[in-house]
Amino acid sequence: KAGVTQTPRYLIKTRGQQVTLSCSPISGHRSVSWYQQTPGQGLQFLFEYFSETQRNKGNFPGRFSGRQFSNSRSEMNVSTLELGDSALYLCASSSDMNSPLHFGNGTRLTVT
Amino acid sequence: EDQVTQSPEALRLQEGESSSLNCSYTVSGLRGLFWYRQDPGKGPEFLFTLYSAGEEKEKERLKATLTKKESFLHITAPKPEDSATYLCAVQAQGSGTYKYIFGTGTRLKVLA
């Protein structure tokens, strides 16, 4: 069974630009969550989608947005990039609320 | 406020030297506690889920235990390939849904 796939693996963007990250969950998993990981803050929850609906949202500014498609694939968008947005962005999928999260290998975003 | 604290931040062990990692938590409405292993440049890999105090789970050289306030990840006779960052996360009941809170991890280095 294929794991969670995130693309691209690496991105370098300039401050003020926008970026879109993609995530394909494990087949059959309908919940997709996004996390930001930085050395100082650890994993911070961004949002969670289930059956194309945002079910939960973390404490991030509105520049961070996401969506989920009917095939459960998800995208995350960050607009007006800031230097502090440089991080590893992780996507995780799960089959239901009682199952653990399964993570992809992330997208490393560098903002210059 | 819901909080997860892991200690120590970093740990160096000689091969074969057993030790324990600690995860203490303060959450309302604990649904489950999860342990993950994260290798450099990769996403967290699921290890264990614990649901109630007194529960234990084992996998190879790892054993996870849970009390009402903390969890321990015991590593018996570690090998260099056990070197990684170990993350603890709790799943807690939120308003109408649930949320995950991650600790900042323990960086384990096992020397040959």
Summarize the structure.
Chain A is mainly beta and 112 residues long.
Structure description:
The complex is a heterodimer of chains A (112) and B (112). Chain A is mainly β and 112 residues long. Helix content of chain A is 0%, strand content 54%. Chain A has strands at residues 5-7, 10-13, 19-24, 31-38, 42-50, 53-57, 64-68, 74-78, 87-94, 102-103, 107-111. In chain A, the strands form 2 sheets. In chain A, strands 2, 4, 5, 6, 9, 10 and 11 form a 7-stranded mixed beta sheet that branches. A 4-stranded antiparallel beta sheet of chain A has the order 1-3-8-7, with no helix packed on it. Chain B is an all-beta fold and 112 residues long. Chain B has strands spanning 3-7, 10-14, 19-26, 30-38, 45-50, 56-59, 62-66, 70-75, 84-93, 98-102, 106-111. In chain B, strands 2, 4, 5, 9, 10 and 11 form a 6-stranded mixed beta sheet that branches. Chain B is globular. In chain B, 34% of the residues are buried. The model of chain B has no long low-confidence stretch (mean pLDDT 94).
Question: Helical element count of chain B?
Answer: 0
Beta strands of chain A, count: 11
Oligomer: heterodimer
Number of helices of chain A: 0
What Rg of chain B is obtained from the alpha carbons, in whole angstroms? 14 Å
**Strand composition percent of chain B:** over 45%
Mean pLDDT of chain B: 94
Could you report the average pLDDT of chain A, rounded to the nearest whole number? 95
| End-to-end Cα distance of chain B | 41 Å
Largest sheet of chain B: 6 strands, mixed
Number of strands of chain B: 11
Low-pLDDT ranges of chain B: none
Find the structural class of chain B using helix and strand composition.
mainly beta
Helix content of chain A: under 10%
Q: H/E element string of chain A?
A: EEEEEEEEEEE
Q: Biggest sheet of chain A, open or closed, and with what strands and sense?
A: 7 strands, mixed
Summarize the helix and strand pattern of chain B as letters: EEEEEEEEEEE
Largest interface: A-B, 22 and 23 residues
Derived structural class of chain A? mainly beta
